[in-house]
Amino acid sequence: MKIVVDRDKCVGSGACVLAAPRVFGQDEDGIVELSSAEVEPGGEREVRDAIDACPAAVIEIAY
Amino acid sequence: MLDLPVLSPDFDDPAFVTDPYPVLEEIRAAGPVVYHAGRRCYMITGYRDVARVFGNARQFVSDNEAFIRLFGGATMEALDNPRHDQVRSVWARDFQRGPLEQQRDLIRGVVADTVSAFAGAVRAGETPDAVHGMTRQVPTKVIAHLLDIPASDFRQFAGWSDAMCDLLRGHHMPGPEGQAYVDRGMRATAELNAYIAAEVDKRRRSPGTDLIGTMANSPVAETMAADEIVANNTQMVFAGNETTSKLMGYVLIALAEHPDQRAALRADRSLIPRAIEEIHRWTSVLVYNLKFAREDGAPVAGVELPKDSTVMCFQAAANRDPSRWENPSVLDVTREPRQHIGFGFGMHSCLGMNLARLEIEVWLNRMLDELPDWTIAGDVDWGGNWMVRGPAGIPLGTDR
User: Fold this and answer.
1) Which of A40-49, B5-14, B265-274 has the lowest mean pLDDT?
2) Chain A: nearest CA to B383, how far in angstroms?
3) Average pLDDT over residues B206-211
4) B98 touching A, CB under 8 A?
5) Are A15 and A53 in contact (CB under 8 A)?
6) What's the confidence (pLDDT) of residue B1?
7) Cβ within 8 Å of residue B378, ≥6 positions away
8) pLDDT tens for residues B109-152?
């Protein structure tokens, strides 16, 4: 499972970082940054939480 | 003293609230950071610069005391982290896109009733005010349902909500008329606070899944003062109703001025969500927000500001930043969407943004069915509030 983020539509809410801190971070402008584009085994649930939590719908899973 | 360009436009001039964009473009042309000598604040207009200040909660803070004065307790808008995230998490799920879909039928029902009655009057040849007759009603009715306000209390609830909408209008209005709006708004806020406090007690005795019940019975509530719980609920009524109504008003005006784009939406309804984003970008409800530097050296557009500096962050100008959008002053509902800053940015970005989008999408669809050729049948009343800007009165007619 691979994660794709659309940084251009990010509103910097930080919701993804709360939900999945091992996967998502924020750059100095508060825009989403991937710490890792691959999800570790067992980390899938966190990423789905982050997808649900994002107010701007910028996170997607690519298979 | 910083060596910056100085401009001191008179924002209280009625011409500004009627059309703020010429003045905002003058500020942009003067430089990325412009000092307002009269208001002693730093004005910024660039998309990236505004987003950076909003996103930098470590070095910039809102006027938290003002929120507390207005609502009688600290709302999440007045909190820093980690506390902010704890309180925001209470309702976070209710405002996610997925769970909100469950409210679509409720919203459809509210919209159908409200728009049918209004459109009927317009088709009969009247030119009623779309703000009081329609755009304020939809969000107020939806939030009343989400708070599980009994139908018998709705009229009173809507009256408080309307008086609170007029409070900010009064703030921007000199003289006794403005003061009367402020007094009435403050009284309405106090009465709504008392009403919500009683509802919180009721939910504790018989829990519900509405927003008041969700907060009253959440584990976080055990760490919240009673006035904090009440203030968050009151703020939601205040923050949701006026802003959504004003964005609907902008949609009415923008599409009446661009009938070709309205026809394109009517023919292809899948364009509606991006059209709403584009109209919001083109005419931002929040013209500006104030932020205050917490410490010396707070960075704004390449300048370091001293502690306690006031920064006037013009979201309306940032949403027309030519370095982000081509021909930014042109409305184009088919434009490829890029994030705009109308709902804010960072940890305090609007909690209700997806509810607002859903309400407006359902409402616009219905308008295109019922009154596809609406016209602006007279002068729009811009109301005088140049911070949370938007029409306070729109006489609506139809071509057919």
Assistant:
1) A40-49
2) 29
3) 91
4) yes
5) yes
6) 64
7) B127, B395
8) 999 999 999 999 999 999 999 999 999 999 999 999 999 999 89
Residue type, B159: G
Tell whether A14 lies on the interface with B, counting CB pairs under 8 A. yes
Residues 31-50 of A with CB under 8 A from B: none
Average pLDDT value for residue range B45-67: 92
Other CB atoms closer than 10 Å to residue B322's CB: what's the count?
A: 13
* Token pair recorded at residue B222: 């055990």
Q: How many CA atoms lie within 13 A of B311 on its CB side?
A: 31
Contact B329, B30 (CB under 8 A): no
Paired tokens of B45: 């207009």
For residue B184, give Cα distances in angstroms to B65, B160, B167, B242. 21, 9, 7, 16
In the structure encoding, which two tokens stand for residue B86, read together?
A: 């704890």
CA end-to-end distance (rounded Å), chain A: 5
B315 and B247 Cβ atoms separated by less than 8 Å: no
Q: Is the minimum CB–CB distance between B40 and chain A shorter than 8 Å?
A: no
Chunk chain A into consecutive blocks of 10 residues (it has 63) and report each block's average pLDDT, rounded to whole numbers.
89 88 88 86 88 88 80
